[in-house]
């Protein structure tokens, strides 16, 4: 079963907003451990999921699938950011 278009639009919007958040980040000086940055990014993902939880539409199963897809997409977007942070830490 395909996602409802309204949910697809929300996922797209959430991905765009999350990407903007990641692009705005300046790595801290002094740096924080990689594990702390992973925790921060996980918290951001959870924040976005909780924010969009109230906006997804459809039956419960549809809503859960949309939120699961959003989580997967946000995790995918965060992977290059975390790799960039790891490279930053190695350069210190």
TrEMBL record:
Principal cellular location given in the protein's record: cytoplasm
GO biological process, one term: protein folding
Pfam family, one: AHSP
GO cellular component terms given for this protein: cytoplasm
Compartment(s) where it occurs, according to its Swiss-Prot or TrEMBL record: Cytoplasm
Swiss-Prot/TrEMBL keywords: Chaperone, Cytoplasm
Gene3D superfamilies associated with the record: AHSP
Superkingdom of origin organism: Eukaryota
GO molecular function: hemoglobin binding
Family of this protein: Belongs to the AHSP family.
Subunit structure, as described in the record: Monomer. Forms a heterodimer with free alpha-hemoglobin. Does not bind beta-hemoglobin nor alpha(2)beta(2) hemoglobin A.
PANTHER family documented for this protein: ALPHA-HEMOGLOBIN-STABILIZING PROTEIN
Protein name as annotated: Alpha-hemoglobin-stabilizing protein
Organism the protein comes from: Lynx pardinus
């Amino acid at each position: 079963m395909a996602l409802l278009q309204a949910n697809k639009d929300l996922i797209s919007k959430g991905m765009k907003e999350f990407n903007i958040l990641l692009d705005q980040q300046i790595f801290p000086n002094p740096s924080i451990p990689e594990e702390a940055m992973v925790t921060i990014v996980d918290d951001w993902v959870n924040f976005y999921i909780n924010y969009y939880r109230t906006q997804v539409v459809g039956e419960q199963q549809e809503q859960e699938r949309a939120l699961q897809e959003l989580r997967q997409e946000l995790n995918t977007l965060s992977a290059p950011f975390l790799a960039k942070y790891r490279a930053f830490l190695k350069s210190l």
